[in-house]
Amino acid sequence: MGDHEVETTEDQRTVRIGKLEALRETGVNPYPYKYDITHRSKQIIDNFEDLEESKLEVAAAGRLMSIRVMGKAGFCHIQDDLGQIQIYFKKDSVGDELYALYKQLDIGDIIGCRGKVFRTKKGEISIWAESFEILAKALRPLPEKWHGLKDVETRYRQRYLDLISNLDVKNIFLTRGKTIRSIRDFLDDKGFVEVETPILQPLYGGASAEPFTTYHNRLGMKLFLRIADELYLKRLIVGGFEKVYEVCKDFRNEGLDRAHSPEFTMVELYQAYADYNDIMELYRELIIYVTRETLGTSVLSYQDQEIELDCEWNRLPVLEAITKFTGIDSESLDDKELIKACKEKQIEIDESRGRGKIIDDIFKEKVQPNLVQPTFITDHPVEMSPLAKVHRNNPKLTERFQPYICGFEMGNAFSELNDPLDQRERFELQKQLSKLGDKEAQMLDEDFLRAMEYGMPPTGGLGFGVDRLVMLLTNQTNIREVLLFPQLKPE
RNA sequence: GGGGGUGUAGCUCAGUGGUAGAGCAUCUGCCUUUUAAGCAGAGGGCCGAAGGUUCGAUCCCUUCCACCCUCACCA
Description:
By secondary structure, the chain is an alpha+beta fold. It folds into two domains: 3-142, CATH 2.40.50.140; 165-313 and 373-482, BirA Bifunctional Protein, domain 2, CATH 3.30.930.10. Helices cover 36% and strands 26% of the residues. The chain has helices at 2-8, 12-25, 41-46, 48-54, 91-103, 152-157, 159-165, 167-189, 230-238, 276-295, 318-326, 335-344, 355-367, 420-435, 446-453, 466-474; strands at residues 57-70, 73-80, 83-90, 110-119, 125-136, 193-194, 200-201, 213-216, 221-225, 243-251, 263-272, 299-302, 305-308, 314-317, 375-378, 390-391, 394-398, 400-405, 408-409, 411-415, 459-465. Helix 7 packs across helix 8 and helix 8 (167-189) crosses helix 10 (276-295). The protein is elongated, with a radius of gyration of 29 Å. The protein binds one RNA strand of 75 nucleotides through helix 1, helix 2, strand 1, strand 2 and strand 3.
């Protein structure tokens, strides 16, 4: 009696440690080495008729998600990689010793079970246990079986619990895996070669962003975590690769919000002898392919919008887009007049960082939210695009495009600048922006210019964010929902 | 960084200026086809942290911490 009183005041973890010790005392190893599985839960359910007919014994394993004991018989559900299946334990079938062990099981324990399959009176396909064993004793209780784990912070900090109790969360990451797989399949099929380039870089470049810095002790040098891999992939084009891509983790030392994570995944690709028109079509085909492979349809359902991807995509030069949505004809205005026009229309702009930044501000505020249907925004002003080739018909513009879907900027692409003297001038312009206080102005990379001076073929290039693509495919509004372990402050 | 919100049992959530409640989970007993199993009983809480007001604070005030939404920054 006294012992019971002590026991009931203990928390669930302590109770389970007690059970663990009791198991060891009876010679049961609560953490054995392996278990031979013959079927996953889904295979049993899919092949039920044959398995029942043949009276074949199956062996399945998984995590206990529910237990119902009724005196001398009981049920439980185990969950494995592919789903759940019910197990029936009958004292007469498993014997007194195992039945006593069954009654000591806790939700969360991982068990393996052998038996024949059958259908219960209520019609549920189940395994009639003939034997079972504990494969791993769980010491902590799982979240509530009905409501699951809801607390967002706990879901991110303890993603393993989120994955165990929320099936739809697991599906997001299955979709993420399929997405990356299908991107590779598509590009491989088109003859692209996958490469790997440095994450630790002595100079950073290829995008406008603040970097993370680190230090190599032995070399005694500062290094940056890459913000993009563009300049390395272009060196490979110089080196004779004609179609390359990289699935790359990039790092940007900037604010976090629902569309930005300091660590994120990009795909960059470069194709020699192509221009941005070719890349536009390649991107459209890629998105349609990936969507079909992951969702089985070319229609995206995002929030309350339905978007058919398999069609002609709108194409709209950025300055025309601004005229369309604000009435401002920026080409006919000088800088002062443009700033005045913005003030009249109450558009908030940062006028200290040059004309390119002003255009960018107007675009983000007034145009971007309207770009729900797939749209290529093209031909950005040259000040905004230091790595893009000047437009063949207009020296103030570049051959550049950014695809937009559901208001998200999905990527960035150019006819790549391959004139080394022009490229040097663009870097000089960036230096001036840096002096104006633009922390994201791009650095001059002498070796990159040297490579280009050996001759880089005309090239089309593209970078796109995988996380945002997965957000669209899984109908998520926060990037953290598509990152397994999002960045959080320490507990 | 600004604005708004949340933080109570392992989980999901109620609630009150007089130190707390439900369901699930846990423990004990009964129950040989149950399924959010059932029935009977029991245990479990520094009410995010630190100050303040008060006879008395989980509740009111201040500060801090974490998370969410939003704006700003940012491809």
